Amino acid sequence: MRLRKASAPVSLAEKMAAPGECFSVGSHVSCLTCLGQRLQGEVVAFDYPSKMLTLKCPSSSGKPNLTDVILINLAYVSDVKMINDRTETPPPLASLNVSKLASRARTEKEDKLSQAYAISAGVSIEGQQLFQTIHKTIKDCKWQEKNIIVMDDVIISPPYQVENCKGKDGSALSHIRKIVEKHFRDAESQKSMQRTQAQQTQKDSSLSS
Fold it and tell me: d(Cα 195, Cα 185) in Å, to the nearest integer?
């Protein structure tokens, strides 16, 4: 794909004319979408058949150690400009830890299945949210009908309050009760903050009218 420098833009049709040409990985390009949005970044990948361009851009969060990865369908781009063309061979890709990726995929699958089970069993939203909170720190956490079983030692039954935590007295039960107590305290604090914000918004709206 032949691209002229930013000072001499060419039509997208001309850029896409030759299937043997493409964007060089590591080049910096600027794209103008059909909606008028300007996207600029470093080319990570380009697939000619699908006309999909992948750019790495500065993070929208503003954090310097993070980046955004954007997929752009060039069928919806009206103009492309080459800012800095990279001609040298890009460095080899970093090796992937396949076993770690497989483990992460397996964990994600188990989490989704657990959520699906909870919904099908009719577990309340409060119960589902508490389960997610506990599962963040204690992976040995599962459903038994509508009860949450933690480390096979503690059972939390509906409505999932501190007093609904049952098990042998000891550090495990005490720890789980503290997690449950903090979860609902944080949830109530968040609800209170949302109510305050809603009231302030309503007040501001009344004053402006």
Answer: 15
Across the chain, what does the average pLDDT equal? 84
Structure-block tokens of residue 78:
């009206």
Inter-axis angle of helices 125-137 and 171-208, to 10 degrees? 120
CA 140/CA 114 separation, integer angstroms: 12
Could you read off the pLDDT of 53-77 as tens digits, one per residue?
999 998 888 888 888 999 999 989 9
Q: What is each CA distance from 69 to 41, 103, 181, 190, in whole angstroms?
A: 9, 24, 39, 31
User: pLDDT tens digits, residue range 94-114?
Assistant: 787 889 989 989 988 988 898
12, 31 Cβ separation under 8 angstroms:
no
Query: What's the chain's length in residues?
Result: 209
Structure tokens at 128: 């589902």
Which residues lie across from 30 on neighbouring strands? 40, 81
Q: Model pTM greater than 0.90?
A: no
- Name the DSSP letter for residue 95: P
Which pair of structure tokens corresponds to residue 90?
Answer: 């890009």
Q: What does the alpha-carbon distance between residue 132 and residue 125 come to, in Å, rounded to a whole number?
A: 11
What's the rounded Cα separation, in Å, for the pair 121 and 144?
10
Q: Where are the beta strands (DSSP E) in 13-138?
A: 28-33, 38-47, 52-58, 67-73, 77-84
